[in-house]
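User: Working on a comparison across species. This one is NADH:flavin oxidoreductase from Bifidobacterium cebidarum. Can you predict its structure so I can line it up against the others?
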Amino acid sequence: MDIMLDNKKAAMIAEPLALPCGVTIKNRFYKSAMNEALAGRDCAPTEEHVRLYRTWAQGGAGVLVTGNVMVDHTQLGEPGNVAVEDERDLPMLRRWAAAGTENGAHCWMQINHPGRQSPITVNQHPLAPSAGRIEGDYGRFFADPTELTREQIQDIIRRFANTARIAKKAGFTGVEIHAAHGYLINQFLSPLDNHRDDEYGGRLENRARFLFDVFDAVREAVGPKFPIAVKLNSSDVPIAVKVNEQSGAPGGFNEEESIWVMKQLEARGVDVIDVSGGTYSKPVIQTNDGAAEDRRRGVYFTDFARRVKGELRVPIALTGGFRNAADMEHALGEGITQMIGIARPLALVPDLPNRVIRDGWRESVDLPRISTGVKPLDKAFGGILVISWFELQMHRIARGKQPNPRIGGMRALLFALKQHGPAALTPRRRKGRQ
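Assistant: Here's the predicted structure for NADH:flavin oxidoreductase from Bifidobacterium cebidarum:
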């Protein structure tokens, strides 16, 4: 009996999934977005993007979501972002999309605007719903933002729709609107960041208006049969630092508000909601402990996903903490997610979906502890060190090499310095400083 149940659960990972728009995904693996850091100063896609996404497509995932593609080249979220605001790079975008859709995979472009979360190394004049700097250990990377005017808000909405239109024309098979992780749409949603007193601020209906306007404009641009996903925070605080699962950041975007927004998106025709959490002030990646951190935390956001289970019919992609087939099978079998969101493990095992579905692979992907060997450096850089380390692995794949888990943290730190410049070494701002 148990064997039959296990086989049934294992088969669920390989089952197709029909989306509300009518499109069918071949299996439940959802490669979640990671910044590839592969674009040059021109913000254009490169041959490295093509090679990286071809590798992942051949690896067996049902959906590949790209890293941040910005809707404005003057407002980047990270060094190395691609930006799409016109058709000048359409030939390379087509090559990227074609590579990412090999082997029956879907390749969805994640479209985004960083708001105030635009590093000072690439943008000294960020925009945001309201003025106010980023607090926490990452604050040193960002300049003070300027509050958006209504005209600028409408321009950004048009930009999201235009980028989605170009993505469809290039051959990408869907888009994901990034409304999480402290970027611009999340800033509108959060009362900690949004202090406006017009139709885009105040009560939740107004704070969510920007997201709904973006979604509606994108839907109009791509039509009713083109998949649109939304990446949304369960709350503004990641699970590792929550005191109360239902609280979120004190005064911030919380779980009750997130569920309400999800219901409104479902009514508007969203195809997938990618559940996440945290911001740069309170990042999801808390330490550089790798597998030890994963064992402490397990699959991320499962308590929230259980709350949502009976509330929504739209497919959920639960991203974070899936390291082995058993956890994937359990989450699918329990019905708390319909897609298995995978990110960092695919930078080390690009063919993980094939191994699980085709080869019956039962091992865990143990992420290494990332260390420079110098404790003060490890403590100072934490999540930045981890992000840079995985970007290095993606760079290896993009250049036709195998991932190398033996790469040390010092190389990751040097990569971060190359990306962020001297700002990476500036002292942390004192807590509470404005």
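For your comparison, note: The longest helix spans residues 375-398.

User: Helpful, thanks.
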